[in-house]
Amino acid sequence: MSIQIGDSLPDVSLRIMTASGDQSVATDELFAGFRVVAFAVPGAFTPSCSGIHLPSFIDREQALRAAGAERILCIAVNDIFVLQAWADIHETGDGIIMVSDGNADFARGMGLDQDASGSGMGTRSRRYAMIVDNGIVSWLGVDQPRQVVESGADRVLEVLKTLN
């Protein structure tokens, strides 16, 4: 069963890139004390993720912040070095924090993992977006494969405005 509105996030270790290199961070370090918009992609450099999903958040970053997002996270079952290269190519700057769920622990803990072995990708995250307040899920939008509808930045912004 996947995570629901009102649930706490799974307590796992993730990885981010800092000025001093890659660093392990606990879920609480990323989400506690903040209103966070997080979106998950099945994989960096994949067509929908690169062509639609990530760009939507880059384009709407300032609007999301104006609507109350204190942090914006992009989560993927990729290593942090792949995510950093992807961020560099898309020029995300410091506004979107790339979060590596390299072992899919977070995706599994959320109940939002998927088997992409048929595409040679192994276990991946489903495509989703969520609004998290101090570690508690306030809203969750999960997309069907190859769609960016519920998890796109425009949908998140629409919902975020209603939560203020």
From TrEMBL:
Catalytic activity from the UniProt record: a hydroperoxide + 2 glutathione = an alcohol + glutathione disulfide + H2O
InterPro entries, per database record: PRX5-like, Redoxin, Thioredoxin-like_sf, Thioredoxin_domain
MF annotations from Gene Ontology: thioredoxin peroxidase activity
Active site: 49 (cysteine sulfenic acid (-soh) intermediate)
SUPFAM superfamilies: Thioredoxin-like
Protease among keywords: no
GO terms classed as biological process: cell redox homeostasis; cellular response to oxidative stress; hydrogen peroxide catabolic process
Annotated EC: 1.11.1.27
Oxidoreductase as UniProt keyword: yes
Thioredoxin domain location: 3-164
GO CC, one annotated term: cytoplasm
Top enzyme category: oxidoreductase
Keyword set, alphabetical order: Antioxidant, Oxidoreductase, Peroxidase, Redox-active center
PROSITE patterns: THIOREDOXIN_2
Family per similarity comment: Belongs to the peroxiredoxin family. Prx5 subfamily.
Matches recorded under PANTHER family: PEROXIREDOXIN, PEROXIREDOXIN-5, MITOCHONDRIAL
Summary of the function given for this chain in its UniProt record: Thiol-specific peroxidase that catalyzes the reduction of hydrogen peroxide and organic hydroperoxides to water and alcohols, respectively. Plays a role in cell protection against oxidative stress by detoxifying peroxides.
Name of the protein described by the UniProt record: Glutathione-dependent peroxiredoxin
Biological source species: Ectothiorhodosinus mongolicus
Lineage: Bacteria, Pseudomonadati, Pseudomonadota, Gammaproteobacteria, Chromatiales
